[in-house]
Design goal:
Strand content: under 5%
Number of strands: 0
Order of helices and strands: HHHHHHHHHH
Structural class: mainly alpha
Distance between the termini: 52 Å
Shape: flat
Number of helices: 10
Largest sheet: none
Helix content: over 70%
């Protein structure tokens, strides 16, 4: 490879600092996911509201964050928002706000799809039992929607984990920021960024396999009315074929 000599001792020495950065990455990821999964529920409900002002406001929020780059949103909150409010936010806080606002928009649309897939008969049964709107959401709509949309939710969370690499652009000491710093110090970009890619992959890939397994199991149950006969590993592998009832 053009006579390049790999120095994996650099990887060994850099790994502890990289893991520190991974800790920040995971912190931001978990905080963002938890807050987004909560905030997305009222946004999704507002998106389905019969009140036009509420519905259009929710849709406007969703479309703004779905149709603009996450990096632009991150820069806007970190650089532009202080110019409007006079309040300077730390990079960590700005990162959480931007990622949460973005993920909430995508999660709200996922929830809305799940909410609308719940059979109307079950909602009407809840009304006959004199359940109010909040109780219908809590006991009937949200549990079924979450279960049905679980593969999509997990996929969004995986994407969010990878997108956290963008917070390095506002000097948040995450995994990517430290990788860039270390590579600039020892001029070993190939080894350091390969290590960073491996760390991201080592966390995202197992979750991706779990997501694929859940999705195929749901498809199997819907198509065959029972569990798939294929092995667990076969169901988890991306691109595996799913039997369809004829």
């Amino acid at each position: 490879m053009n006579g390049y000599n790999f120095d994996w001792n650099v990887v060994v020495s850099a790994l502890p600092r990289m893991l520190e950065g991974l800790g920040i990455t995971l912190q931001i990821t978990v905080i963002t996911i938890v807050i987004s999964m909560i905030l997305a529920i009222p946004v999704a409900v507002a998106r389905m509201s019969k009140i036009e002002v509420v519905r259009w406001a929710a849709q406007g929020y969703i479309e703004i964050f779905r149709c603009t780059p996450l990096l632009v949103q991150l820069f806007w909150i970190f650089y532009a928002l202080p110019a409007l409010t006079g309040v300077t936010l730390p990079g960590y806080t700005s990162a959480v706000i931007a990622l949460t606002a973005n993920l909430t928009a995508f999660m709200a649309e996922t929830y809305r799809s799940g909410f609308q897939s719940v059979p109307v008969e079950q909602v009407e049964a809840g009304r006959m039992l004199q359940l109010n709107r909040f109780q219908q959401l809590r006991y009937i709509i949200v549990p079924q929607a979450m279960r049905q949309q679980l593969p999509v939710i997990l996929s969004l969370n995986i994407s969010l984990f990878k997108d956290t690499a963008l917070v390095s652009t506002i000097a948040v000491a995450d995994l990517m920021f430290l990788a860039n710093t270390i590579s600039a110090q020892n001029y070993r970009a190939l080894e350091i960024f390969t290590l960073a890619a491996f760390i991201y992959f080592a966390i995202a890939f197992p979750i991706s396999l779990i997501t694929s397994s859940i999705e195929r199991r749901m498809q199997d149950n819907a198509a065959l009315g029972g569990a798939s006969r294929s092995s667990i590993w076969a169901r988890m592998m991306p691109g595996a074929r799913v039997a369809v009832a004829r």
